[in-house]
Design goal:
This protein is α/β, with parallel strands linked by helices. The chain contains seven helices and eight strands, in the order βαββββααβααβαβα.
Amino acid sequence: MATLYIASTETFVGKSAICAALLTQFRAQGRSVGYMKPVSVAVAQTESGAVDQDARLMRELFDLQESPEHIAPVLATTRVIEGVLQGDKPDFRSQLQTAYSAVANGKDVVVLEGANTWAEGALLDLSADQVSDLLSAPVLLINRFRSISAVDMIMSVR
């Protein structure tokens, strides 16, 4: 089984589109695919509770059977962040590993979508590099090129 973590140095660079393209391509090759957004920092409130919109979209687009709680296991809501800042520290790493095992079960390829930026999730011990290490997932780093100074941003994540 192969896992690939799509991360970025900034928000709105096309991570979701790249994830969707990869999942489509892998499926076209006859591979069973899984998707997960390990850490969600842009959480929306719905009638049924907190959700990650990207994860919900991918679940619908690719008819993924795993539960929303496995596809987006760590929702960094304001309440969660406030709790962590006040000393409450659930075992997010264990929660993530359990969800990943469920998503990866029986799959040929799992695509992981990173949070908005490389550093987001650090408060929960789940920044992009920490998630990549925890799940042994190589990283495809996405960055928007605006000027040559973009190299600084890329080099900062090494």
